[in-house]
Amino acid sequence: xxxxxxxxxxxxxxxxxxxxxxxxxxxxxxxxxxxxxxxxxxxxxxxxxxxxxxxxxxxxxxxxxxxxxxxxxxxxxxxxxxxxxxxxxxxxxxxxx
Length: 97
Known about the structure:
This protein has helices spanning 9-25, 28-47, and strands at residues 4-7, 53-54, 61-67, 70-77, 82-90. It has 97 residues and is α+β, with helices and mostly antiparallel strands. It has a single domain (4-90), classed as 2-Layer Sandwich (YaeB-like fold). The protein has a 5-stranded mixed beta sheet. The protein is globular and about 40 Å long.
């Protein structure tokens, strides 16, 4: 059974914010590269759901960089064989408390 990716509303909003920022401040080529890089990362994540570091605060919650400017938080549910993308944000922003 293949691992399935599930996007939360917060993850979609964070990803959209990053794309809008890139479209405003960078070239179309950089936007395409970012999208390709993130989807390549998600394919790697499907193959190895424990790719990033566990947070230590919650069971099966992982956090780490997709690239040097983007941080992903996700929950791996081994029973359901799914990865729930909790949040995607810029690394330069302060984390939520």
